[in-house]
Every structure is written in structure tokens, then in C-alpha cells.
Input
Amino acid sequence: MSLDPTEVAAWLQAHPEFFNEHADALAKLSLVSPHGNRAVSIQERQVEVLRDKLHALELKLAELIRFGQENDVIAESTQRLVRDLLIETDPRRLPAAVLRNLKNAFALPALAMRIWGAPAEVTAGQSWAHEVPSDTRSFANSLMVPYCGPNSGFDAVRWLTDGNDGLVIRSVAILPLRVGAAPAAFGLLLLGSPDSERFTTEMGTTYLARIGEIASAALSRLLKA
Output
């Protein structure tokens, strides 16, 4: 009769008294260590299993600590962004404040922004007010959450290389700027990197969405200036 190993293991777990009642069988058992082709006792094997589990837990804890530290840095950067936007009294300087904070916080080589719908008295001579094609505006309207991933030939990505033709953008984060839950966006904020793994589709966008909401709330002042 063949025995199923899973059933044997389940039976032994359900009858822990077996080896107490059959000590001779326990004495005859030997196991092979995964760290070398040598026989070890059950007690030694249990210690090795526990050691491996402890190592896995240590790695998981180290990963959680790293994530926590990264989140702390992002939280501090977000607080700094909010502070600088609140104390800025000239709405025309808000776009530069947003880009400066994000560049310092994320050490990115390329950032760009476009805003449309602001009155002429605040847009004159401002690079963020350059004309934006209607299809790009439609693309902005379609973004209800930030896009994070590879540069798939978005027309707006060209803004990131203005004045730096040698820079190749392989991954981007694109944040729509809109007032609250308005269906139409009034601008786009782009973060770009030559590193294809800097922004990926697997990344969470929670912090990017918050940054987009903060920037939108501040930059909406330009529409009323």
C-alpha cells in the first residue's frame, strides 16, 4: 500500500504522542541537512528550519523598515512642498516652487509643467504657459489618476527634454492638474527619468496622487489671478 506523504504529515501532526510511544522509531530516523550532505538529528533539523524562518523574518523586517524610512522621506518632502506653496504670495511663482520642491525631493533630472486657462496677465513670458495641443488637453482630461510607467511616446514628454536634447526619457509619471473632482484638467505635471525602472506600472500612485492634489489646489490660484 502506497502512502501519501501529505496524509502521513497530517496524521503525525494530529498524533504528536506517536514518537513518545515509539521512541525506538525516533532513534532510527535520520535527516539530511539542506546545508550539506550529512545526516542530522530531528532536533538539529528543527533548529535549522527555525533558523531559516528567523532569517526570512529578519529580511521581511528589514524590508518593512526600509519602506518606512522611504515613506518618512516622502512625507517630509510633501510637508515641505505644502509649506512653500502656502507661504508663496505671488501665484506666478507657484509653478517654479512645485518643480523645485519635487526636483529636490526625488532627485529627478527632468520635470515639466503646463497650465492652460490662466489669464494673460500672469502667463506672459512663462514657460509653463506655452500652448498645449488639444489632443494633449484631452489626454489630461482622461487621466483620473496619475500615469506611472514607460515612456510610450507621449507627446507631452517632449516638454521634459526642452533645452536638453541629449536627455532620453525612458519612464515617466504624469499627474493631471484639476480643481477637485472637476472632469476637465487645467494642466499637466510630468516627472521623467532616463532609468526605465524609475517609474513602473507596478508602482503605487498614492503619494503621486496626493502630490497632484496639493499642486492642483495651489496652482488653481493662477486661474483666478
